Amino acid sequence: MQTLTVRGKRLTFWNKLCYAIGGAPYQITGSALGFFLQIFLLDVAQLDPFYASIILFVGRAWDAITDPTVGFLVSRSRSTRIGRMMPWILCSAPFAVATYFLIWFVPPFEQGKVVWYLVFYCLFQSMQTCFHVPYSALTMFISTDQTERDSATAYRMTIEVLGTVLGTAIQGQIVGGTNDCPADLEGRNVSKFTVSTVSLDESVRIKQAYMISTGVICIIYLLCTLVLFLGVKERKESKRYRGQLLTFRRGLYMVMSHEPYIKLVIGFLFTSLAFMLLEGNFALFLTYTLGHRKDYQNILLVIMLSGTLTIPLWQWFLTRFGKKKAVYFGMTWAVPFMILIVSIKSKLIISYLVSVAAGVSVAAAFLLPWSMLPDVVDDFKVKNPGVHGHEALFYSFFVFFVKFASGVSLGISTLSLKFAGYETGACLQPEAVSLTLKTLVSLVPVVLIFIGLLILKTYPIDEKRRQDNQKLLQEMLDSDTDSESSALGSNV
């Protein structure tokens, strides 16, 4: 039985906290995969960069394809005693945990290893989609008040950034520093260290470390799902719109023809790509370009901690100055530090300082898209008051575009490392690899951020339009309540 409920229009602190905790599994597993899967496939599973790029691209592309499919199925789902979104979340969680565990397992055979990782990576992404799409859409079903939803989203983003901290910390602290390569390779002969120096015993120890960290993450995943179920009550929908469900084709057309949604998606597509490129290549950059082999997991942790602590700052900023201004300040804040990290001579203390500053933008990148998306859904409701079941479609297609593009970027970045001469399992990489990594974590992300901001400048929902939409929706809700009350009185 669900013990915590929504009282009227207002959500309690515990409602918001339990709702937010439900978002942690997605970010915990996402940060572990984002920061460590590439280096795991290359240096632990010891796959050729070409095959690693195929796994990363196909897995992300498959993940992207499943998002609109699951979004449509969720939108067509009938409400149950525990809601329309919650059954999807509860049923998918165990399968997501099982497939996630097998991603980090190194099978005792060489032939077919690529197929192993490809299959379980795609299966996990499918199960994760069945969890996250309804969870994201649940934002629209915990309250009808935009202020309450914004507050709950801020809680969610704080916990999700904390989730990335946990994912980075658990994976990084358990498996980080397990390589026996010399700590300082500067000035050494490259050819001398282009073969792996990791012994058989050390290889077994690294694999066991990945299994331990994965087991811890799986347990946390299940616990967070339980807290979400027990702590959040899904609000019932108005009877006025029940049964008027969108077909997939009509839903796709209506969602894709809504101008504010298209501009929001494309703008954040570019900015998200920038941070995903940074995330996917940063561990390699710290290890092989800056030489922080023994400290890279701590630097990643500092970035995530900084992001967690600054989420409340950005929530205050967007409330005080508006969401569009928050986007401009939040995204451009990272640019000088992306340039600085590749321009200065490698020093550990400077890397830590830059990481603290960069975490501020990471917080904005987490919070702002999910804070602005409900405004677009509300805008669509105002213009299409008779349409029902569209919420999951908006969220799923938003994730679809971001994930598909990130799959392309990860595949291209891993292929770029292969063309640059990346040596699997090596302690030192050629200079071309270092130059490639600098490009992938600095030049390309900076360009993508500026393109995204130019597109978001045309985003039409400002604070006035957002408040007007909220008033109109409240009038519609009051009208529905009066109609249902009248109908009930007539029946009596």
Automatic annotation (TrEMBL):
Q: Where are the transmembrane segments?
A: 17-42, 86-106, 118-142, 209-232, 264-290, 296-314, 326-344, 350-371, 392-415, 435-456
**Signal peptide coordinates:** none
Any one annotated GO CC term: endoplasmic reticulum membrane
Establish whether keyword Glycoprotein is in the entry.
yes
Q: Name one GO molecular function term.
A: fatty acid transmembrane transporter activity
Q: InterPro entries from the xrefs?
A: MFS_2, MFS_trans_sf
For the biological process aspect of GO, one term held by this record is:
lipid transport across blood-brain barrier
Question: Where is it localised?
Answer: Cell membrane; Endoplasmic reticulum membrane
**Gene3D superfamilies to which the protein is assigned, alphabetical:** MFS general substrate transporter like domains
Provide this UniProt record's keywords sorted from A to Z: Cell membrane, Disulfide bond, Endoplasmic reticulum, Glycoprotein, Lipid transport, Membrane, Symport, Transmembrane, Transmembrane helix, Transport
* Membrane topology of this protein: Multi-pass membrane protein
Q: Which reaction does it catalyse?
A: a 1-acyl-sn-glycero-3-phosphoethanolamine(in) + Na(+)(in) = a 1-acyl-sn-glycero-3-phosphoethanolamine(out) + Na(+)(out); 1-(4Z,7Z,10Z,13Z,16Z,19Z-docosahexaenoyl)-sn-glycero-3-phosphocholine(in) + Na(+)(in) = 1-(4Z,7Z,10Z,13Z,16Z,19Z-docosahexaenoyl)-sn-glycero-3-phosphocholine(out) + Na(+)(out); 1-hexadecanoyl-sn-glycero-3-phosphocholine(in) + Na(+)(in) = 1-hexadecanoyl-sn-glycero-3-phosphocholine(out) + Na(+)(out); 1-(9Z-octadecenoyl)-sn-glycero-3-phosphocholine(in) + Na(+)(in) = 1-(9Z-octadecenoyl)-sn-glycero-3-phosphocholine(out) + Na(+)(out)
- Do you know which PANTHER family this protein is assigned to? MAJOR FACILITATOR SUPERFAMILY DOMAIN-CONTAINING PROTEIN (PTHR11328), SODIUM-DEPENDENT LYSOPHOSPHATIDYLCHOLINE SYMPORTER 1 (PTHR11328:SF29)
**Family of this protein:** Belongs to the major facilitator superfamily.
Function summary = Sodium-dependent lysophosphatidylcholine (LPC) symporter, which plays an essential role for blood-brain barrier formation and function. Specifically expressed in endothelium of the blood-brain barrier of micro-vessels and transports LPC into the brain. Transport of LPC is essential because it constitutes the major mechanism by which docosahexaenoic acid (DHA), an omega-3 fatty acid that is essential for normal brain growth and cognitive function, enters the brain. Transports LPC carrying long-chain fatty acids such LPC oleate and LPC palmitate with a minimum acyl chain length of 14 carbons.
Q: What is this protein called?
A: MFSD2 lysolipid transporter A, lysophospholipid a
Tell me what organism the protein belongs to: Takifugu rubripes
Gene name in the database record? LOC101074690
